[in-house]
Amino acid sequence: MDYEVESSRIAYDGELSRVRVDRVRMPDGEVVNREIVEHPNAVAVVPVEEDGQVVLLRQYRHPFGQAALEIPAGKLDSDGEVPDEAVRRELAEEVGLGAGRLTELVTFHNSSGWTDETTTVYLATGLDPVDAPAGFAAHAEEADMEVVRMPLADVVERARRGELTDAKTLIGVLLAAERLRGRAAH
Amino acid sequence: MDYEVESSRIAYDGELSRVRVDRVRMPDGEVVNREIVEHPNAVAVVPVEEDGQVVLLRQYRHPFGQAALEIPAGKLDSDGEVPDEAVRRELAEEVGLGAGRLTELVTFHNSSGWTDETTTVYLATGLDPVDAPAGFAAHAEEADMEVVRMPLADVVERARRGELTDAKTLIGVLLAAERLRGRAAH
After folding, report:
1. What is the pLDDT of residues A77-116, one digit of tens each?
2. A contacts of B179 (beta carbons < 8 Å)
3. B166 vs A67, A109, A144: nearest CB
4. Looking at the complex, does the CB of residue A94 fall below 8 Å from at least one CB of chain B?
5. Distance of CA A116 to the CA centre of its chain
6. What gap in Å lies between CA A115 and CA A105, rounded to an integer?
7. Is the pLDDT of residue B140 over 70?
8. Is the per-residue pLDDT at A143 higher than 60?
9. Chain A contact present for B28, CB below 8 A
10. Are B17 and B37 in contact (CB under 8 A)?
11. Going along B26-91, which residue ranges are E strands?
12. Could you tell me the strand order of the sheet in which A42-47 lies?
């Protein structure tokens, strides 16, 4: 496939989001504008405790004006943080846990048609309490987050009923269930 | 929870994306800016044929400069189209199928921290060939799409191995598998 970018301009440069407009020559020769929202990549993690409980957060989400049940997650720090470090930081900051074992489940595109954001999701097991990192100050939304523990089978059942509405949470929980089913079977 | 929007402005108004910046008074009294990317909502559909094959598309995605394996999907038309109509239109346009039965699986938030986009995902069964809608002209990317049929169990296995990278496809396929497993068990 041949989609040549003839020119490119930044149409908006905000605090976190940046809009890029590319002029693209399509395979049939037509030249079209493509609007892409550039956004920092994210990590997310499904923490599963030894007794099969998943550690979730109930968290206010401003774009929807309501709270949602989600797995711990966050953006990569802009100073070159790698996903593996970021996920250990988020686990400590948001739910006060350290992971003996991190398994990468997938790196997915949140909305592949219009933004370059990707989210890397991990399964965390062998969990132990840790202190929040030195210098960590919770944002207002984080101060308001509520930790919710729930058996993995119950979280999957909520997903099956359409009651979980957050992409990274659905993907993480359903893939974690597939993996742990796999482990149990072998 | 009390997150009062004190003021709001449109910082960018593009072809599909619009950036809104809200000044929000947090529960602790602090006032912060929140940048939200407004984007049209989408529908997506997992078409499962009678013999258990899923109908997928291999499609070029400009934000990543590469092709991805995805379920059929599209944005809601701006003239007030409802998800149920949109998904029947996409099924006909993209893979030439009509559905005897549409089951809504979930309406999810693609990236709940920073955009208001939601995607409603359906399971489609009882499939029959139909003509593309009258007046339908494929865009260049659509002309370049390739239809790929694959057994549902193989698609789930690809998801399990982290090889599917599109959010709506992962969520649709994993939830369809949960539902169909449920139907088989009862």
Report:
1. 888 899 999 999 999 999 999 999 999 999 999 999 999 9
2. 160
3. A109
4. no
5. 14
6. 21
7. no
8. yes
9. yes
10. yes
11. 31-38, 42-47, 53-61, 66-70, 73-75
12. A73-75, A42-47, A118-129, A97-109
Unique residue bearing structure tokens 């609007």: A35
Angstrom CA distances, B39 to A45, A168, B62, stand at: 26, 18, 17
B3 in A contact zone (CB under 8 Å): yes
Residues of A in contact with B165 (CB under 8 A): 106-109, 112, 118
Nearest C-alpha neighbor of B91 from the set B137, B162, B151, B43: B43
Q: Which residues pair with A166 in a beta bridge?
A: B109
> Which pTM does this prediction carry?
0.95
Q: What is the pLDDT of residues B76-131, one digit of tens each?
A: 988 889 999 999 999 999 999 999 999 999 999 999 999 999 999 999 999 999 98
In the numeric block, the tokens 């291999």 are attached to B58
Q: Write down the catalytic residue from B38, B49, B81, B142.
A: B142
Q: Nearest CB to B179: which of A22, A67, A160?
A: A160
Residue A134's pLDDT is 67
Of A55-59, A61-65, A181-185, B156-160, the least confident: A181-185
DSSP B120: E
Helices B167-185, B152-160: crossing angle, 10 deg rounding: 130
Is A4 tagged catalytic?
no
- Tokens encoding B46: 């997992």
User: Mean pLDDT throughout A10-26?
Assistant: 96
Structure tokens given for A111: 């909305």
- With tokens 């079977």, the residue in question is A185
Beta carbons within 8 Å of A101's beta carbon, 6+ residues apart:
A124, A125, A126
Q: Which residue has the tokens 């996409």?
A: B90
CA A23 to CA A29: how far, in whole Å? Answer: 12
Is B112 an 8 Å CB contact of chain A?
A: yes
Using CA atoms, how far residue B60 sits from A2, A30, A46, B142, in Å, is 10, 16, 30, 9
The tokens describing A83, both together, are 């996903």
3-state helix/strand/coil string of B128-173: EECCCCCCCCCCHHHHCCEEEEEEHHHHHHHHHCCCCCEHHHHHHH
